[in-house]
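We store chain and fold; thus.
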Amino acid sequence: MALFPDPPAPAPARPEIEQTTVTGPLGGPSYSYRGAVIECQKGGHVCRLQMPEHPLHSHSFGVAGTITPLVDLWVDERRLPRYMRAVPKAKR
């Protein structure tokens, strides 16, 4: 046993969110992240997740940074956070 073991290997870096347009379909910036499209309203404070295979597809959240962890969890583990459940949209 070594007195000073080697530090653990760093976790692989996550892809960066990439802005794809300044004025997208909702009037604000649009982004691409790990196969998802994140469309924001003007000001970028309310954004919508566009990822058809994700259970929260077409739902709106806060800023784009609140959506990226949901995409990470879905892409890596195919699940939602424990505190969140997807409820199907009501048919009209």
